Amino acid sequence: MKALPLIALLLIFSGCEETSPAGATNNPPAGNTRDVDNTANNKRDQSEVAKTAIDQNENQADIDITANIRKRVVDTQMSINAQNVKIITQDGKVTLRGPVKSADEKKQIQEMAVAVAGEGNVDNQLEVEAE
Going from the N-terminus, what domains does the chain have, and what CATH number goes with each? Predict the structure, then answer.
């Protein structure tokens, strides 16, 4: 007898399906495809020489370098993209990757990384976004 209400609820909800409001689409706004289409970046990142977050070493020294740089970057008033750049450390060598808003942000992050990892230990591959 207790199963009857449960079965009724299941039947009611099984007929429900999620729909979008009339006229809504999953397509990006016109002219905003740069944010959606990362095909070129994805192909570039598949190269064996392109460093990605998976390349971060797990030894404590490299983790500490990355964390120290990340803290300095996040504690700034830079753009969200700048605060989310990839910081990859392998054997004390830091690679910086990702988009930043300006050449000034690129320079600031470079200087923070050098202050932590030392001169000659930073490969700055940050990209300034086109406006």
Answer: 56-131 (3.30.1340.30)
Residues in CB range of 28: below 8 A, 6 or more apart: 35, 36
What are the structure tokens assigned to 30, written together? Answer: 């016109």
Residue with token string 């120290």: 68
> What does the mean pLDDT of the chain come to?
76
In the sheet where 86-90 sits, what is the strand order?
Answer: 86-90, 93-100, 122-128
- Name the region of 118 (left: φ>0; alpha: ψ -120 to 50; beta: rest): left
Task: State the pTM of this model.
Answer: 0.61
pLDDT of residue 37: 46
**Contact in structure between 98 and 85 (CB atoms under 8 Å):** yes
Give the per-residue pLDDT at 25.
Answer: 47
Q: How far apart are CA 106 and CA 97, in angstroms?
A: 10
- Specify the residue for token string 């190269």: 47
The Cα 94–Cα 123 span in angstroms is: 6
pLDDT of 29: 47
Specify the pLDDT at position 130: 79
